[in-house]
Design goal:
By secondary structure, the protein is α+β, with helices and mostly antiparallel strands. It contains two helices and two strands, in the order ββαα. The protein has one domain. The two termini are about 15 Å apart.
């Protein structure tokens, strides 16, 4: 499940930053629809963080931050009961 994001700005090499926030779930999960608002909200949060930054962040720094966030999410997501109130 994923949510694509595009940010157009001349601060990027090709005048846009395009990324796709996604999660991979087990086929054994019964109802993945409950995760849709979570994926959408997190993609919008990452977009907002990037837009509010004062300069384009280097690819290596982005990758390191993404790896840190991914590790935290992997520990956090299984412990949360989600509601559709996003």
């Amino acid at each position: 499940m994923s949510f694509p994001v595009s940010i157009e700005s001349n601060k990027y090499e090709r005048n846009a930053l395009i990324f796709n926030l996604g999660f991979v779930f087990s086929l054994e999960d019964d109802d993945l629809r409950s995760y849709e608002p979570v994926v959408r909200k997190l993609a919008k949060v990452f977009r907002t963080l990037e837009v509010r930054s004062t300069r384009a962040v280097g690819v290596q720094l982005q990758r390191r931050r993404a790896d840190e966030i991914k590790a935290r999410l992997c520990h956090w997501l299984p412990t949360v009961r989600w509601s559709a109130s996003f």
